[in-house]
């Protein structure tokens, strides 16, 4: 037949990483609970302010033997920020080079997204909980195209004078008030909680803050970031307490991730002393390293531990699908299962910079500036084989971005339906008056 889909299918088939038998299907039939930690960067994990842990609960999860905790995991968003993270997590395709895929194309495109696949393959019910208005990033339309059964947006949560920050319901309220809906969902369910309180400008009223000591740098954004991250941590702990009390904990797998950076490059020098670093020696290399975000998979009896393999948001969906016992071979996924021995460890950013386990590379019109990860030094005179290898990585990963753009910009999934998949009809979904 020969359509534009052929090069995409070729790439995906050749790039496919088969499941690791040790993990394949270990979460089959479990409820999936995804906790989106807004603007949460990995450096917060285990960090302290005046000898006090910033995020004690998330730290305990990070070090729990029932958690697969990835220490070299990077966000890969572009201008679509949260919505790009969602695009990658639900479809294993990238956001766009400019703007948000959700608002620009997601309202009309054909999807083969996680909620529809899980419903059709394993009878999952799906829902999103989010304390902002439903039309933000066009979620109320995009989620229908993805096949989300339910979307609980701001109107489902109590609105009082002090219930919200600029970005919507405070996280503790979001979690507490979601429970009555969560309990009514047909199991197994696939659910996503999008938190908002740890979002720039990181402001919270004094009565929402406990005695956690804010850092005292001369940069208010940095200081506030630590206090809202501390609040988010406490909100997640309350949610876990509920999951345990209700028994849902025992038949669920919980996935936590930070969607993207919270502090801009311009704020990093103010942050440096809090990370025991001299701001005067802070470099672009350090900025690249700071693009790590948490990715944790937690489940009772999971054989976890801290994972050193490199990966990014594009890899989350194939990893989850394989844990749930769904082989990803026939889906148009550009990421690879982080737990597979064949996982592709090279991480491409939306601006074409990339990180490999050994090097961090700036790519400016195919001119590569290569930093060595072990030293942070620029290789002024890289060995020919290093230059050659990284040039090949750049080519391959750029091709990956281009294929993603081709699929998304020309709505190519219209022309390819995976085996055993029924295209989603968005008219079947309505998010008004759910469970009311
Ligand atoms: C808005 C929230 C924040 O609803 O998801 O989005 P961001 O500004 O991070 O893209
Ligand atoms: Mn965000």
TrEMBL record:
- Keywords tagged on the record: Cell membrane, Manganese, Membrane, Metal-binding, Transmembrane, Transmembrane helix
Q: Which family does it belong to?
A: Belongs to the LTA synthase family.
Main localisation: membrane
| This protein's encoding gene | ltaS
The way it spans or sits in the membrane comes to: Multi-pass membrane protein
Q: Name one GO cellular component term.
A: plasma membrane
Q: Catalytic center at which residues?
A: 82
The residues that the entry says bind substrate are 199
Supply the source organism for this entry.
Bombilactobacillus mellifer
Record bears the keyword Acyltransferase: no
- Pathway(s) where this gene product acts: Cell wall biogenesis; lipoteichoic acid biosynthesis
**Mind telling me what this protein is named?**
Sulfatase family protein
Sulfatase N-terminal domain mapped to chain residues: 30-326
Where in the cell does this protein reside? Cell membrane
Q: Listed GO molecular functions?
A: metal ion binding
């Amino acid at each position: 037949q020969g359509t534009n889909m052929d090069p995409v299918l070729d790439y995906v088939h050749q790039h496919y990483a088969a499941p690791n038998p040790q993990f394949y299907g270990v979460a089959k039939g479990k409820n999936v609970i995804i906790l989106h930690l807004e603007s949460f960067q990995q450096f917060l994990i285990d960090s302290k302010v005046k000898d006090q842990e910033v995020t004690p609960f998330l730290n305990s999860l990070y070090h729990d033997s029932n958690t697969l905790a990835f220490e070299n995991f990077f966000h890969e968003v572009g201008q679509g920020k949260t919505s790009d993270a969602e695009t990658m997590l639900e479809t294993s395709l990238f956001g766009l080079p400019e703007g948000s895929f959700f608002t620009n194309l997601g309202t009309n495109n054909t999807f083969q997204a996680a909620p529809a696949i899980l419903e059709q393959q394993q009878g999952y019910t799906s829902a999103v909980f989010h304390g902002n208005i439903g039309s933000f990033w066009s979620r109320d339309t995009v989620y229908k195209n993805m096949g989300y059964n339910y979307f609980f947006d701001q109107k489902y949560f109590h609105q009082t004078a002090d219930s919200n920050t600029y970005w919507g319901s405070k996280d503790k309220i979001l979690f507490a008030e979601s429970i009555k809906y969560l309990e009514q969902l047909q199991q197994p369910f696939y659910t996503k909680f999008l938190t908002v309180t740890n979002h720039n400008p990181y402001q919270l009223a004094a009565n929402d803050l406990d005695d956690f000591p804010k850092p005292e740098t001369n940069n208010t954004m940095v200081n506030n970031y630590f206090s809202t991250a501390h609040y988010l941590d406490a909100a997640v702990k309350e949610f876990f307490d509920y999951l345990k009390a209700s028994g849902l904990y025992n038949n669920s797998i919980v996935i936590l991730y930070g969607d993207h950076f919270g502090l801009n490059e311009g704020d990093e020098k103010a942050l440096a002393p809090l990370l025991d670093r001299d701001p005067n020696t802070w470099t672009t290399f350090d900025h690249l390293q700071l693009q790590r975000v948490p990715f944790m998979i937690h489940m009772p009896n999971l054989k976890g531990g801290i994972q050193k393999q490199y990966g990014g948001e594009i890899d989350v969906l194939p990893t989850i699908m394989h844990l749930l016992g769904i082989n990803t071979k026939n889906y148009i996924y550009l990421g690879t299962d982080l737990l597979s021995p064949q996982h592709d460890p090279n991480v491409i950013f939306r601006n074409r910079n990339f990180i490999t386990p050994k090097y961090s590379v700036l790519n400016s019109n195919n001119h590569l500036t290569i930093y060595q990860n072990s030293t942070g030094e620029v290789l002024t005179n890289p060995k020919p084989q290093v230059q050659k290898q990284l040039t090949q990585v750049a080519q391959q990963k750029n091709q990956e971005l281009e294929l993603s753009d081709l699929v998304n910009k020309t709505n190519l999934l219209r022309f390819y339906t995976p085996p055993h998949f029924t295209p989603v009809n968005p008219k079947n979904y309505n998010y008004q008056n759910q469970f009311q």
